[in-house]
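[Amino acid chain]
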Amino acid sequence: MMNKSLKYFLLISFLMIFSSAYAAAPEGAEIQHSAEVMQQFNEDEALAPERVIEVKRKHQILFWMGGALLILILFAAGFGIAMGIFDKDVFIWHVLSAGLATTLAIAHGVVAFVWFYPS
């Protein structure tokens, strides 16, 4: 049997989900205001010269990030193989290299997406 607090939690969650589905649609003025707010973010502003990065430099940065990522992935795989096949005690190094590779992979993906998203 479910306890009383779990029943109340599920009931409140159910009511919140379905009450939000019946929320009133925004009025015409609210839609226009929202469009004006979004338009402010779409305006192209001139960047300061010291913040501008050339495309060639962006490619170089992503290349070195990718190279470091490849090395970290190979280290993680090597430590995993050393643990699994050769029964070595390198779990900490395996976890460390895998964690760094994952972090670098996320950063590499975000940077590539931000710099080279088609506009």
